[in-house]
């Protein structure tokens, strides 16, 4: 049995059930947004009294904040294997990061249809062609398809997910990087889901760019990063024009900064960056092996359990994938996913997500056009959390579809 690897804030939060009682909130919606680690919250509390303007003041607090911000940048980049500190641009989240790279990419983009909308839609706004190809049903064929397409037509960038936010499945990134480079393209990895579950180094794997979100990595909302080669970014228009992004401004002329400052116009989110760096420290403290084992064991327990419940169908992209993170999407025959998710919440205090997970093309292709339910785990999850979900599902399946609920002032009405 597995206990949480590290404490998250709010782990003991009690939530109301439909019968008026209260129970511990079983958070199985970690893939959407993870609660902050206690150590991250502690670090934020520690630096709040020191927080002031960054890169804008000579006062002591401004100098402290500037160095906190730049140290955090360096720390976040190093955690992901960036070789230079100026390769980490602090943004709000993965969506921001992808949009920033999309504004910088100098040629066509190739994507698979398994992506989150954040790794589909930004590319469509570039002046270049974005080609979205359906991923074949095995990893081997998918890699071959990418190789063929890259050889057939010139692409500047191959953009893929590090781990699917729907099924948790992951492509072999080092191999994908080789395929991209052999085809003359760079590789962008949407690591929003991969980063909280696996340690990896972009320089070791040969990845050119990654995007991450702090709120999925046990830091509070507000900061994410785009990490990768600076040449395209330095040649692109400033993402956010304004103070901080410029070296000189005349009435009719502007000299834009290069490096991260070019795209970080406006007062930067120092607390967000500090929190994200603290989350990197915490995951370093846990260690790659422990993180990996925890995630695999809980995922295994969840998927084995789901497979034993009659009428449960689990989503899967690749028949031959053996690498996947702790995210599972499923339906129960005859039960509307929204109602199922609501029942899990109202009767058992379990938080899952239902819907199409910002991955409409993938859901449609996998035969889940009506949506599905997603359960996801993280470092704060335990075997008991997974078992609570499995027990609840068994009970709901045995009793048939249940009641309709409406929320009222935070409580439940039948
Ligand atoms: N990519 C993936 C794989 C995701 O799961 C998500 C969040 N659901 C995103 C991108 C977008 O992240 P954010 O909302 O933090 O920009």
From TrEMBL:
Keywords: Lyase, Pyridoxal phosphate. InterPro entries: Aminotrans_V_dom (IPR000192), Aminotrans_V_PyrdxlP_BS (IPR020578), PyrdxlP-dep_Trfase (IPR015424), PyrdxlP-dep_Trfase_major (IPR015421), PyrdxlP-dep_Trfase_small (IPR015422). GO terms for molecular function: cysteine desulfurase activity; lyase activity. Belongs to the class-V pyridoxal-phosphate-dependent aminotransferase family. Csd subfamily. It catalyses: (sulfur carrier)-H + L-cysteine = (sulfur carrier)-SH + L-alanine. The keyword Lyase applies. Transmembrane segments: none annotated. Residues 26-389 form the Aminotransferase class V domain. Its cofactor is pyridoxal 5'-phosphate. It comes from Rarobacter faecitabidus. This is Selenocysteine lyase/cysteine desulfurase. PANTHER family: CYSTEINE DESULFURASE, CYSTEINE DESULFURASE 1, CHLOROPLASTIC. It comes from the Bacteria.
């Amino acid at each position: 049995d597995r206990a949480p690897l590290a404490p998250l804030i709010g782990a003991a939060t009690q939530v109301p059930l439909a019968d008026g009682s209260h129970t511990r909130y079983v958070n199985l919606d970690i893939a959407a947004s993870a609660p902050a680690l206690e150590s991250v919250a502690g670090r934020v509390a520690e630096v709040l009294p020191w927080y002031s303007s960054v890169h804008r003041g000579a006062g002591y607090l401004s100098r402290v904040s500037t160095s906190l911000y730049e140290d955090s940048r360096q720390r976040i980049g190093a955690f992901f294997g960036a070789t230079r500190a100026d390769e980490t641009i602090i943004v709000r989240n993965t969506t921001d990061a992808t949009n920033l790279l999309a504004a910088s990419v100098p040629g066509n983009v190739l994507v698979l249809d398994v992506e989150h909308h954040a790794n589909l839609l930004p590319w469509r706004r570039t002046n270049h062609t974005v080609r979205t190809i359906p991923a074949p049903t095995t990893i081997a064929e998918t890699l071959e398809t990418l190789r063929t397409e890259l050889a057939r037509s010139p692409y500047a960038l191959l953009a893929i997910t590090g781990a699917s936010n729907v099924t948790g499945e992951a492509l072999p990134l080092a191999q994908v990087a080789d395929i991209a480079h052999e085809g003359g393209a760079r590789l962008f990895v949407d690591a929003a889901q991969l980063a909280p579950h696996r340690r990896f180094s972009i320089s070791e794997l040969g990845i050119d760019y990654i995007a991450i979100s702090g709120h999925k990595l046990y830091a509070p909302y507000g900061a994410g990063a785009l990490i990768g080669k600076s040449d395209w970014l330095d040649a692109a228009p400033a993402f956010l024009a304004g103070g901080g992004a410029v070296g000189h401004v005349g009435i009719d002329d502007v000299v834009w900064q290069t490096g991260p400052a070019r795209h970080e116009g406006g007062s930067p989110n120092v607390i967000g960056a500090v929190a994200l760096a603290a989350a990197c420290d915490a995951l370093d403290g846990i260690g790659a092996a422990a993180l990996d084992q925890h995630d695999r064991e809980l995922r295994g327990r969840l998927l084995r359990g789901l497979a034993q419940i009659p009428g449960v169908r689990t989503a899967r992209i690749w028949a031959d994938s053996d690498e996947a993170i702790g995210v599972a999407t499923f339906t129960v025959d005859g039960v509307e996913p929204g109602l199922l998710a609501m029942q899990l919440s109202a009767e058992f205090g379990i938080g899952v997500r239902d819907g199409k997970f910002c991955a409409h093309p993938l859901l449609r292709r996998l035969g889940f056009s009506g949506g599905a339910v997603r359960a996801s785990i993280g470092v704060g999850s335990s075997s008991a959390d997974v078992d609570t979900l499995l027990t609840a599902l068994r009970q709901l399946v045995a009793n048939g579809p249940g009641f309709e609920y409406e929320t009222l002032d935070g409580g439940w009405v039948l």
